[in-house]
Amino acid sequence: MKIKNISLILLALILIFLVGCSNNKEPEEGIEEEKLTGVEGEDKEEEATEEAGEDSSGNRSPLSGRVVEEELLNRPVVGVMFDNHPNARPQAGFYDAEVIYEFFVEGRATRYLAFFLMNDPEMIGPVRSARPYYLEKAMEYDAVYAHAGASSRVTEEIAASGIQNVSLLGPGSSAFRREPHRKAPHNAYTDMDSLRSTAEDLNYRESSDFEGFLFS
After folding, report:
1. How many Å from the N-terminal Cα to the C-terminal Cα in the chain?
2. How does pLDDT run across 89-135, given as a tens digit for each residue?
3. Residue 190: which of 206, 174, 202 has the closest Cα?
4. Which end of the chain has a smaller Cβ tally under 10 Å, C or N?
5. Side-chain half-sphere CA neighbours of 215 within 13 A
6. Given 2.30.170.40, 3.50.90.10, 3.40.50.1110, 3.40.1360.10, which CATH number is that of 70-201?
């Protein structure tokens, strides 16, 4: 009986030893694989950087740092007031903005002010009305400010500040339309071609004069 017990104990120790060895080998293989994957990832990133435009032109968007054609830089920045009510989501054209600000409005709701330069979405909205604190951001970028109207006080501030604005209830109202798939007031839409052509018709400035972001 004693010899049999000893044999069972030895067999158990051998099994534990074998399991331990196999567990020790797996992390080493995993680490090696991770190192190889990392090297491959770095190579792909370098290739993507070379392909994406480390060119000699230096034509970078002052909003996003993306390399763009020079003609896209020589035009005004456009800022659009976006609705953020649950009934307004998902917003159209939001993905194409290069800089987006979100501020609280009344009732703890928020709205967005999205700035566009290099992209021209074919549908933008829903567009909502202006608020005074958004005017400061529009002026920072010397932008054409697109909105769906404003209070009398904000309209006076827009006129006094000289902001070039395109409004559903003011100058350039023809740039906007009501889409049937949403209910008012969440159905005011526009597009970048309409906003830019309307800004030209209103004799607004042909480019924006502002200091953009710095990119490495």
Report:
1. 77
2. 999 999 999 999 999 998 889 999 999 999 999 999 999 999 999 99
3. 174
4. C
5. 13
6. 3.50.90.10
